[in-house]
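User: For my dataset I need records formatted as: sequence, then structure tokens, nothing else. Please produce one.
Assistant:
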Amino acid sequence: MNRKETEELEQFGSDKQISSVVRTITILERLARHSSINLEQLAKETELPKATLLRFLSTLVNLGYVYRDPGDRYSLTLKMFSIGSHGLEHLDLINLAQPLAELLCENLGETVHMGILEDDHAVYVLKKESSYTLRMYSRVGKMIPLYCTAIGKILLSDMPDKAVDEYLAGRQLKPFTPNTIRTAQELRSELATIKERGWAMDNEEHEPGIVCIGAPVRDYTGKVIAAMSVSWPIFRFEHNGFDLTVEMIKQACRRLSELLGYDVR
């Protein structure tokens, strides 16, 4: 084999490795969107042949990143979550937000979340649980919609009009509750209000019986890179002192923004 043939073979091997990495990441990203999924549906979503997909899944199952249940449905294991959690520990955003979220949780007595934009969803990167026995079902790493959550609407409100157009293009605003925003026009109107007043509310729009209020976290350029929110069961939500509650959440987010280099003056 001459030198040229050797180089071509090495390049071919490299291309195959890159392709395998891309396919693996694609599979993991699609699995992350489902609690569990069967092979046929996953093949449609990843656009991979079933035989190829099954080969990759078998490897991921053997490595402990994917679980195959007795009904032949696949889901991510906590091993993947563990890796992500270790990565989050080293982000300045998380480290700086921790004490502020703890203080907000202590002062208001309710669960605090912080979320960031991930494709066309938001994902929780921090959670401080309330001390009440009845708590929210949520976790770090959980993905939530943008159009019907306080965190999501904050993130949407900072997007350029073109980006909002792209987000809405062909998207059906699924009604999770009777309060969920149903139309693009209604959403655009609310986003304009959020941008002007500096906070957002989820009034039982994503989960029945849950109210959330959130505010933006900005980096040194002024760009919204995250949002922090507080969530209440509706029966614990006090309308008296509403303005003070909103201001406390905004202040915590302003302080975090300052620590990230944003000039709030």
